[in-house]
Design goal:
Elements: E1 3-9, E2 19-24, E3 32-42, H1 44-50, E4 64-65, E5 69-76, E6 89-93, E7 106-110, E8 114-116, H2 123-127, H3 130-143, E9 151-154, H4 160-171, E10 175-180, H5 185-191, E11 195-198, H6 204-207, E12 211-216, H7 225-230, E13 233-241, H8 250-256, E14 260-263, H9 270-282, E15 289-294, H10 298-306, E16 313-317
Parallel strand pairs: 9-10, 9-12, 10-11, 12-13, 13-14, 15-16
Antiparallel strand pairs: 1-2, 1-4, 3-5, 3-7, 3-16, 5-6, 6-8
Helix pairs in contact: 3-4
């Protein structure tokens, strides 16, 4: 077999640019494993890139296969005694656009980018984890260092990254204040938020006491959420921002307000994902799927994501498993 089924774009543009195609199957090299993809998730960066923003400037050639998250089964190991042998169920992240994306039947990825799938999770559930959970882990645990006694404000808490951020912050003992829409308030409390602010009816800076850290998954693209967050921080507090290009003046704005700030960029990290897998396996955290689409319906999945009302993750069903 030298080709595979995939959803590709031949140029950037609207969701209709996602079309089905037969493309060359990736060839495993060096320390990579070849994985048959059972499910793949979509993320905001996918939609931004498809539209001509995001990382579209680094796409080397068209057609190109989008996608970072996947869950599937190893079909070729990197070497004979490697722990991830053919038949092993794994999940992880691609290095798109430096490599092919996950909206396809196969991916070839570094063994450092994958780990064993948690046994209690289906492939569809596991596919919804990697990029969002690793982003949340990096922001909440590695950068903001969630701990007991800390007050942490999390924006867009019901989204893919946000719902993991709430759970990680709570797991490590922080007091969690989450912003979300009216329909998600009860659900966010179930995830572990101590205080929930309905952004449709309440200005969060008027309802929230001074916090130590802000996990900013919005930036300044809507209602000056980022700038308003600076006023909610204690002096010297920390704001961590993730959405690409959402706040170009972040660092100087924070310095003027007497607080610290940094952006965050996620990277494939099998070791960190293995820790997250144990928390998923034990039930200490969980992934929520908003909707599952077939691979051929990737365009509809992008439109759903871009509607801005997603709770948790949207996943593409790619193959059997």
């Amino acid at each position: 077999m030298t080709t595979m089924r995939a959803m590709v774009i031949n140029r950037t543009g609207g969701a209709e640019e996602l079309i089905a195609a037969e493309v060359p199957r990736p060839v495993r090299v060096n320390s990579e494993v070849l994985v048959r993809v059972v499910a793949a998730a979509i993320n905001p960066i996918d939609a931004k890139t498809r539209a001509g923003r995001g990382v579209s400037g680094a796409i080397g050639e068209f057609p190109t296969v989008l996608g970072y998250d996947f869950s599937g089964v190893v079909t070729e190991a990197s070497y004979e005694s490697h722990p991830l042998q053919p038949g092993t169920e794994v999940f992880g992240m691609t290095s798109f656009p430096r490599s092919g994306g996950s909206y396809a039947e196969y991916v070839s990825v570094s063994t450092m980018s994958v780990t064993r799938k948690p046994a209690p999770l289906s492939h569809v559930e596991a596919a919804g984890v990697p990029l969002a959970a690793l982003t949340a882990w990096g922001m909440v645990v590695d950068v903001a260092r969630a701990h007991e006694g800390q007050r942490m404000l999390i924006h867009a808490a019901a989204g893919g990254v946000g719902h993991f951020a709430v759970q990680f912050a709570r797991y490590f003992g922080a007091t969690v204040i989450a912003t979300g829409s009216t329909r998600n308030l009860g659900w966010l409390r179930e995830l572990g938020a101590d205080q929930i602010v309905d952004h449709a009816t309440t200005r969060f800076e008027e309802a929230v006491q001074t916090v130590d850290a802000v996990i900013d998954l919005v930036g300044n693209i809507h209602d000056d959420t980022g700038t308003r967050s600076l006023g909610a921080l204690r002096r010297g507090g920390l704001l961590v921002n993730a959405p690409t290009g959402s706040w170009p003046t972040l660092v100087p704005d924070a310095a003027s307000a007497g607080v610290r700030a940094t952006t965050y960029k996620v990277a494939p990290d099998g070791a960190a994902l293995a820790v997250i897998a144990r928390l998923l396996g034990s039930g200490d955290i969980r992934v929520h799927l908003d909707e599952v689409f077939d691979l051929a319906d990737a365009a509809a999945a992008h439109l759903k994501l871009e509607s801005g009302h997603t709770r948790g993750k949207i996943v593409l069903r790619v193959g059997e498993g």
